[in-house]
């Protein structure tokens, strides 16, 4: 059996930080090549610098290290992407085409593409949005993800590259802060709560969005990548559901730990993006094909977020 060698791009980001740890726990440190656009480090040491828009640099690693799996996490998210649409398209799409080309040329076994609920736009049904809804994304991030899904499907059907993909909801985790998404509020709010600070939310209190807790998001990723090839019927991207809640509901949950937690609402441009997205997701295809189901509900998430962030704060104080 061929020895696994796993390349992660965007390893220093919110999802990348947690995924690197999960892949190291599963396969061992020497198997995982963590890369990011800029020099970064984490608990496992330095992350190698790789600009995934540079085909030659990417090919060199994939060829020389006999890479067998690629998790392509490098991307600019929905809110930040609007500041520079052309650059966002380049980073998100050019890098993905490079990954697909490298996978094709060097026979990489499996490739993972993170898509997003941002592929849906104003036309899609908002409640229980299905896998096959019409895609008319509002943001350049959403456009790049919707196109990326099609490119993944194309490389699968035309060249047999084993591309697998999930449409992540907003991801909540304590490992690191997210950078530039519309769902970031659901992480920032816990950082404010544990510091006994008030939070000003950039979405209105009743905006319901699909979310997922990091352990569920990581488990979904690994379960999809481990599923037998014949079980993967969708080569664009799978809807996955975690849970849906509004800013008001997360505040109600946080107040079970911090009864005096204070919130103000001051919606900005991200409100329009959020309103173009589903409020809840139908993931029956993922349930059917590879047995997906989420475990975490809102109070479980609050409990773990608050506990883990307090632990981290204590360690920093002691250092
Ligand atoms: C974002 O808000 O841009 C991301 C996403 C839902 O893809 N978290």
TrEMBL record:
UniProt record, GO biological process: L-threonine catabolic process
Domain (NAD-dependent epimerase/dehydratase): residue spans on this chain: 6-240
Gene Ontology MF, one: L-threonine 3-dehydrogenase activity
Source organism superkingdom: Bacteria
Family (UniProt): Belongs to the NAD(P)-dependent epimerase/dehydratase family.
Name the record gives this protein: L-threonine 3-dehydrogenase
Organism for this UniProt entry: Flagellimonas pacifica
Taxonomic lineage: Bacteria, Pseudomonadati, Bacteroidota, Flavobacteriia, Flavobacteriales
């Amino acid at each position: 059996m061929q020895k696994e060698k796993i390349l992660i791009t965007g390893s220093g980001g919110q999802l990348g930080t947690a995924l690197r740890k999960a892949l190291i726990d599963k396969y061992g440190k020497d198997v995982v090549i963590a890369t990011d656009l800029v020099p970064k480090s984490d608990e496992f040491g330095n992350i190698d610098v790789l600009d995934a828009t540079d085909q030659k640099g990417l090919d060199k690693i994939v060829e020389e290290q006999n890479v067998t799996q690629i998790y392509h996490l490098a991307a600019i998210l929905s809110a930040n992407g609007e500041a520079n649409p052309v650059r966002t398209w380049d980073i998100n799409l050019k890098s993905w085409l490079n990954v697909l080309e490298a996978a094709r040329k060097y026979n990489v076994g499996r490739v993972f593409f993170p898509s997003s609920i941002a592929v849906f736009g104003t036309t899609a049904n908002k409640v229980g949005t299905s896998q096959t809804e019409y895609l008319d994304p509002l943001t350049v991030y959403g456009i790049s993800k919707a196109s990326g899904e099609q490119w993944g499907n194309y490389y699968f059907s035309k060249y047999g590259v084993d591309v697998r993909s999930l449409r992540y909801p907003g991801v909540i985790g304590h490992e690191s802060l997210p950078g530039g998404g519309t769902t970031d509020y659901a992480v920032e709010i816990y950082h404010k709560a544990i510091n006994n600070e008030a939070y000003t939310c950039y979405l209105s209190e009743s905006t319901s969005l699909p979310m997922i807790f990091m352990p569920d998001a990581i488990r979904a990723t690994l379960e999809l990548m481990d599923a037998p090839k014949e079980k993967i019927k969708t080569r664009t991207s799978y809807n996955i559901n975690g849970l849906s809640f509004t800013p008001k509901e997360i505040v109600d949950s946080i107040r079970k730990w911090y009864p005096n937690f204070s919130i103000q609402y001051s919606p900005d441009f991200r409100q329009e993006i959020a309103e173009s997205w589903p409020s809840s997701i139908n993931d029956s295809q993922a349930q059917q094909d590879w047995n997906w189901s989420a475990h975490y509900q809102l109070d479980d998430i609050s409990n773990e977020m608050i506990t883990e962030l307090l632990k981290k704060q204590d360690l920093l104080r002691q250092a």
